[in-house]
Design a protein that fits this description.
heterodimer; A: about 400 residues; alpha/beta; Rossmann fold; 2 domains; seven-stranded mixed sheet; five-stranded parallel sheet; 15 helices; B: about 280 residues; mainly alpha; two-stranded antiparallel sheet; 11 helices; 2 strands; about 70% helix
Chain lengths: ~400, ~280
């Protein structure tokens, strides 16, 4: 067979177009790296359900300019080792452009270097201050308020409720030290005092000795910076030790399931704080519909926003790479564009040449250059009869 | 108190090792199954704690036998290391089977709450004291079984000298099943005791696996009195470590104990075999 020079030239010129056509056919690959088991196992399954349902919804609406979204799921086991193994698999084998849903700060800290070295965008729901201080070159974005903001609000709440002597019992996490530092600063400024902290190994089955030492300092409030399994033990042992002061804990530890599994005597009066989703947002209503519940957890709301932001960034840039998402995400998440609450809504406007500003189920989704969210609402609850009752939302 | 609770699954681990000569790392998952069985008996069927503990023992014992017959016994001829590795896989399968059935959510027992007893500058947890008493009853029952029943005596015979026991016509397979039932039943019993103080979830047993293994190694693999001694040493050691170490290193006590024992007395404090 003889190929003419003209045919060869035509074929050569066609190669870039064929590549472009193929690139448009290639799906956008997203890795859902969630805690399906372990201490975060109460959240992971619903997070994955929301990620898959959001991708399906975009796919059924025609995808991102015809490009479908393919979601691959991996379990972190709420464990850095398993998280890194899952991250390697998603990045090296499944060739994802973005990883979403890392929950525990220790897992996110371990997975983040894999992402930025591979130029894969990492969307996380972890709160430790240290995460966005990593040299991530803009490849990390989080929708969870950082430790500094969370502890500022929680400690201010304690001061408003006349707490004077606060002792912290904290699970060993990347945010335990930063949390206590911020609690100390805010208490000192408000006339209170942080009188000590014990960082414990959360895998233990008893914390009697830690509690004895904490109560020896005569606190009027205990800051239980725990995860759900260790919170249950702490509450039981504090009751047994006849502690009758205030107790406050993050909302991710005092889940409805944990509260309902404990006797009301153990949980009555327990305060919890949590970043609150935007309850009035259409995006929040969409998450409610996906999960079939009136009160979806904050992390499911956040991963809904992650998938929508990724889809909008890919639509904006026209490319499905981690770098393209990295470059375009703030062009669709903030600014003076028209406010949208879903990628489907936003993609229509982008196609028409209108700029958009995504506001999601978790809040406004505006990010600092470091990757932290700029603002969000917080809710404070007090447990009564095994149920959290809203005290304030602001 | 913690040591007393830890002793029960550690005895179960060593009972299986003594007769079948392999380390069954599925003991943590079997403890979880016992905790779930006890929780169902207590919270769903409304049984008191004592019969619920019996249910935990029986359910864990039965699952232990079935799992052994299906997974571990066919591999036993390949050597103890192969069987031990298979038991790790079995543990993962059992843990996830529990997760499929009951989800990740924690569950609690229906039991009265007690404040601690105080006196002489000390305080004693009533729930922990009850758990320790239940452990002692289980250990006493095991002692009676091994000392006074024909099945118990044959188990000891196989543990002491399997070849001589075989020459005497003792059916090693049957004794293996009995050892598995008793050993895994004790793991389930201990799993429920742990869950009484904590909660029931798919990781209830896994969280104490290192402590169980450390207790067994420190006491001497295959030695039942050794398991009791090892459990008390690990339990007390973990609490006392807080006097000299930050609380975050408490979990390292088990590793440290294993390191020291394997360095200076590989057979364990009361162990005979160190092969």
């Amino acid at each position: 067979m003889v190929i003419s020079r003209r045919a060869a030239l035509a074929a050569g010129l066609a190669v870039p177009f064929i590549r472009l056509a193929r690139a448009a056919d290639e799906p956008l690959r997203i890795g859902a790296l969630c805690p399906l088991t372990g201490a975060g196992g109460q959240y992971g399954p619903s997070m994955v359900k929301v990620i898959q349902a959001t991708a399906d919804e975009i796919n059924q609406a025609g995808g991102i300019g015809g490009r479908q979204i393919a979601v691959t799921v991996a379990d972190t086991q709420t464990n850095p080792d398993a998280g890194v193994a899952g991250g390697h698999k998603l990045i090296d084998v499944d060739r994802v452009s973005a990883v979403v849903g890392t929950w525990a700060s220790a897992v996110t800290t371990a997975v983040a270097p894999l992402c930025w070295e591979a130029k894969v965008m990492l969307f996380t729901v972890s709160g430790a201050d240290s995460i966005t201080k990593l040299p991530h070159h803009g490849y990390i974005i989080r929708t969870q308020p950082n430790t500094h903001l969370q502890m500022t609000r929680a400690t201010q709440f304690l001061l408003d409720n006349k707490a004077k002597r606060v002792f912290a019992l904290a699970a060993q996490t990347p945010f335990a030290v930063d949390s206590y530092t911020r609690i100390t600063e805010v208490l000192k400024a408000g006339g209170g005092e942080a009188i000590g902290q014990i960082i414990y190994d959360p895998k233990q089955t008893s914390f009697r000795s830690e509690i004895d030492r904490a109560l020896g300092e005569k606190p009027d409030t205990l800051f239980l910076n725990a995860y759900a399994p260790d919170l249950a033990i702490l509450l039981r042992e504090l009751f047994q030790a006849a502690y009758d002061g205030h107790r406050i804990t993050p909302g991710y530890a005092a889940t409805p399931k944990v509260l309902s599994s404990l006797q009301p005597e153990l949980t009555n009066g327990l305060w919890s704080f949590a970043p609150s989703p935007d309850l009035d947002s259409p995006a929040y209503a969409a998450v409610r519909k996906i999960l079939g519940t009136q009160n979806p957890d904050p992390y499911s709301c956040q991963v809904y926003d992650h998938v929508n932001l990724i889809a909008l960034a890919v639509a904006k840039s026209g490319q499905a790479t981690g770098t393209a998402i990295h470059d375009a995400v703030r062009e669709v998440s903030q600014g003076s564009g028209q406010e949208v609450h879903s990628a489907i809504e936003g993609m229509k406007l982008l196609a028409a040449g209108t700029t958009v500003n995504y506001s999601g189920a978790s809040g406004p989704c505006d990010f600092t250059p470091e990757g932290d969210i700029i603002s969000c609402k917080f809710r404070f609850d007090e447990v009564e009869g095994g149920q959290p009752k809203l005290l304030s939302l602001s | 108190m913690e040591g007393a609770v830890l002793a029960v699954p550690a005895i179960g681990f060593n009972a299986v090792y003594a007769v079948l000569r392999f380390a069954n790392f599925a003991v943590g998952s079997i403890a979880t199954i016992g905790a779930f069985a006890g929780w169902i008996a207590n919270s769903t069927l409304g049984w008191p704690i004592a019969p619920s503990l019996l249910a935990a023992f029986l359910a864990a014992g039965v699952v232990g036998i079935v799992a052994d017959e299906a997974v571990l016994r066919p591999l036993r001829s390949s050597g103890p290391l192969t069987t031990a590795i298979a038991s790790v896989a079995l543990a993962i399968i059992l843990e996830n089977a529990v997760r499929f059935g009951f989800g990740n959510d924690p569950h609690g027992f229906t039991l009265p709450l007690y404040r601690d007893w105080h006196g002489l500058g000390l305080h004693l947890g009533r729930q922990q004291a009850q758990d320790a008493a239940a452990s002692i009853v289980a250990m006493a029952a095991l002692f009676c079984f091994l000392a006074f029943t024909r099945a118990g005596k044959t188990m000891r015979a196989v543990a002491d000298n399997p070849m001589l026991a075989s020459l005497k016509g003792i059916d090693a397979v049957r004794i293996g099943r009995i050892a598995n039932f008793v050993g895994m039943g004790l793991a389930g019993f201990g799993g429920m005791l742990i869950a009484l103080d904590t909660q029931v979830d798919p990781l209830t047993g896994f969280r104490v696996l290192l402590s169980i293994f450390a207790a067994a190694v420190v006491g001497g693999l295959g030695s039942i009195p050794g398991a009791v001694m090892g459990a008390f040493l690990i339990g007390i050691g973990e609490e006392m470590s807080l006097l000299v170490l930050p609380a975050t290193y408490r979990g390292a006590v088990g590793f440290l104990a294993i390191l020291l024992i394997l360095s200076f007395r590989p057979s364990g404090l009361l162990g005979q075999r160190a092969s």
